[in-house]
């Protein structure tokens, strides 16, 4: 065997080894990308499902329920191409298809949630923030066009204002029931201030009039009650500062 032939065989062997290593790297990369895609889509399905099931009944509408169903269905159909043997996934996708086919006749069974505590208000706020994130994701995936996504972002912001109004309104009514007109007045006043600082406050005139009527009633009652302790004022004033602060999710605009 000539030296040239031996050298050629060695080079061929090295080439084959390099080729095998390259192919293995491609396979590993594809498997990793597939696993990441499956995890992302599974996460999106779970979040849409949780929102659809957990959203307070007083805020969810058939249109919102339908939109969440469609986003989950889109993620599920993409996931099925990566996990074709998953029977649980196939059953879920079929269920979502049937629900989406109902359009806005889709049933909404979410129970209303009476927001009376700061913890409850924050929990609903987290749902709204996640809804905003799913709308942005749906727009990036082409499931929601820009106009529709902007409408839903506006709806999320409207619901955030309604959440604050409901919280302060409920807090004020609870204080009245407890005979604390001063605390009730402070709560209604905070609600009024929150509405008045909204750029689209004209959309909340009905709620504003109700708050103003409650505020006037509480103010009148307060005149007949003993002057409250100073700490009661600070208790409500400090209560929801972080809830009313500028939310990070609002910075993620859709263009």
From TrEMBL:
Keywords (A to Z) from UniProt: Membrane, Transmembrane, Transmembrane helix
Ranges that cross the membrane: 6-27
Keyword Membrane listed: yes
Phylogenetic lineage: Bacteria, Pseudomonadati, Pseudomonadota, Gammaproteobacteria, Pseudomonadales
Biased composition (Basic and acidic residues): 228-255
Residue segments, region Disordered: 220-255
Name assigned to this protein: Uncharacterized protein
């Amino acid at each position: 065997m000539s030296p040239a032939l031996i050298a050629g065989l060695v080079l061929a062997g090295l080439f084959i080894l390099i080729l095998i290593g390259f192919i293995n790297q491609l396979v590993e990369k594809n498997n990793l990308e597939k696993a990441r895609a499956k995890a992302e889509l599974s996460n999106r399905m779970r979040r849409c499902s949780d929102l659809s099931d957990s959203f307070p009944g007083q805020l969810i509408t058939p249109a919102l329920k339908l939109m969440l169903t469609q986003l989950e269905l889109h993620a599920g159909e993409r996931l099925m191409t990566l996990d074709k043997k998953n029977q649980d996934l196939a059953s879920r996708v079929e269920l979502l298809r049937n629900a989406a086919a109902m359009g806005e006749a889709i049933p909404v069974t979410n129970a209303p949630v009476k927001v009376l505590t700061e913890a409850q208000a924050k929990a609903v706020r987290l749902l709204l923030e996640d809804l905003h994130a799913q709308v942005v994701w749906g727009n990036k995936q082409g499931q929601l066009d820009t106009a529709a996504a902007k409408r839903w972002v506006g709806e999320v912001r409207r619901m955030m204002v309604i959440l604050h109004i409901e919280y302060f309104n409920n807090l004020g009514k609870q204080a009245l029931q407890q005979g604390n007109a001063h605390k009730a007045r402070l709560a209604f006043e905070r609600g009024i201030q929150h509405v008045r600082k909204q750029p689209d406050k004209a959309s909340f005139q009905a709620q504003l009039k109700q708050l103003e009527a409650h505020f006037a009633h509480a103010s009148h009652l307060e005149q007949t009650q003993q002057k409250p302790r100073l700490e009661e004022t600070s208790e409500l004033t400090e209560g929801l500062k972080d809830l009313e602060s500028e939310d990070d999710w609002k910075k993620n605009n859709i263009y």
